[in-house]
Design a protein that fits this description.
The chain is an all-alpha fold. It is built from 17 helices and three strands. It has helices at about 1-15, 60-75, 75-85, 90-110, 120-130, 135-150, 160-175, 185-195, 200-210, 215-225, 235-250, 260-265, 280-295, 305-315, 320-330, 345-360, 365-370, and strands at about 20-25, 25-30, 40. The protein has a three-stranded antiparallel sheet. Helix 7 packs antiparallel against helix 8 (about 185-195), helix 10 packs parallel to helix 12 (about 260-265) and helix 14 (about 305-315) packs antiparallel against helix 15 (about 320-330).
């Protein structure tokens, strides 16, 4: 296992420039691109690293078409129409709100504006000005402020608190415009984490979400952060929250995978245990996530999130064939944990993909056997 992670470091330094992994005699070692024994992800039809989409975890053609149109024309109405036609309490609407807010925040970061140019994300400002009672625009604006707080300021600073207080007021406005919509309250979960809500206040917020969308996977993932050791809880509290959600999840719900996200949030910064990724805690969480994936509907919008994290753990556990079967479902989009915490999500994902391919072929796998 130690050799595997030395290999990861070497590949990261090389920025995954090409197929650099060799399989021979059941092992993995570095080789040169073009070597006849090199394991090449392209043989499986996987997308080139530079073409990986870092914006979303999985395909949403309607969202991508509208997002491209909005950013090209700076006209907000297509975004408003798309959200208005998306189920209020569903996972898709939450992902689309995040995507529009993230696009506006990134535009502003890249083009803050000045004397000679307007700031990026101007279409969101116009949206709020021209349609102040549009619940979709209000939700996107609230999420935009939250993302701005985490992108542009440091947690615990006055600047961070000021932006989050503004976001809190925006959430209240969005909730008034759409009383049955869970999204304003889901957005507030990140605010609760940043402003350190007392537990009683956080639990009251959580009850409002459960009343509106009790099995919302995105909401549970956002709430899990609050209970983590690095924020306002502990490992035990985070595991308890995740395991309780998994236990009450109806069949077909991806909430059964929540314990794996709790394990991920508490990974040691330095792992000195050789078999950590094959330990009972990790194995149990992985098996729960695999069960969730197998029982979920094929079109579940949160399925890609779970598959991405599963691929990470399966590679680290050297479960190559299972990792490859997750890869064939998610390849092409990398806007999910664990890749999004990296400065280079596509590069980080490509490292694990290359390792999965190499490990799979080192144990006799091939493109032909993967298709069976």
């Amino acid at each position: 296992m130690e050799i595997l992670w030395v290999l990861v470091a070497v590949v990261l330094l090389g920025a995954v420039a090409g197929p650099v992994l060799l399989r021979r005699g059941g092992g993995i070692r570095l080789t040169h691109p073009g070597d006849p024994d090199a394991a090449d992800p392209a043989n499986y039809g996987f997308v080139r690293q530079e073409e990986l989409d870092v914006r979303v975890p999985g395909p949403d053609e309607d969202l991508m078409d509208v997002l491209d149109l909005v950013q090209r024309t700076q006209e907000w109405r297509p975004a408003g129409q798309l959200l208005a036609g998306t189920e209020t309490a569903g996972e898709v609407r939450w992902q689309r709100v995040q995507a529009f807010a993230g696009a506006a925040a990134l535009e502003l970061q890249q083009r803050p504006g000045g004397v000679s140019e307007s700031p990026g994300g101007q279409w969101l400002r116009v949206w709020r000005a021209e349609s102040p009672k549009d619940p979709g625009g209000a939700a996107v604006h609230a999420e935009f402020l939250v993302q701005q707080a985490w992108r542009s300021s440091t947690a615990g600073t006055d600047e961070h608190r000021i932006i989050l207080e503004e976001a809190r007021a925006a959430c209240g406005n969005a909730a008034l415009l759409a009383p049955g919509d869970p999204i304003p309250y889901i957005i507030e979960l990140s605010i609760a984490r940043g402003l350190a809500y007392p537990r009683e206040e956080f639990e009251q917020l959580w009850l409002k979400i459960l009343d509106r969308a009790p099995t919302h996977m995105g909401a549970h993932l956002a709430a899990l952060h609050y209970w983590c050791e690095k924020w306002h809880g502990s490992r035990a509290l985070a595991y308890s929250f995740a395991e309780a959600a998994a236990a009450r999840a109806p069949r077909g719900s991806l909430l059964a995978a929540l314990p794996l996200f709790a394990v991920y949030e508490h990974l040691p910064e330095v792992n000195l245990v050789r078999e950590f990724y094959r330990s009972e805690v990790v194995t149990k969480a992985v098996e729960g996530a695999l069960y969730a994936v197998h029982s979920a509907a094929a079109d579940d919008p949160m399925l890609a999130h779970v598959r991405h994290l599963l691929m990470f753990f399966l590679v680290r556990g050297e479960r190559w064939a299972e990792a490859m079967h997750q890869l064939v479902h998610v390849d092409g989009h990398v806007g999910a944990l664990p890749w999004t915490v990296s400065p280079d999500p596509a590069g980080e994902y490509a490292v694990y993909r290359a390792l999965a391919v190499a490990g799979y072929e080192a144990n006799g796998g091939s493109p032909a056997t993967l298709r069976q």
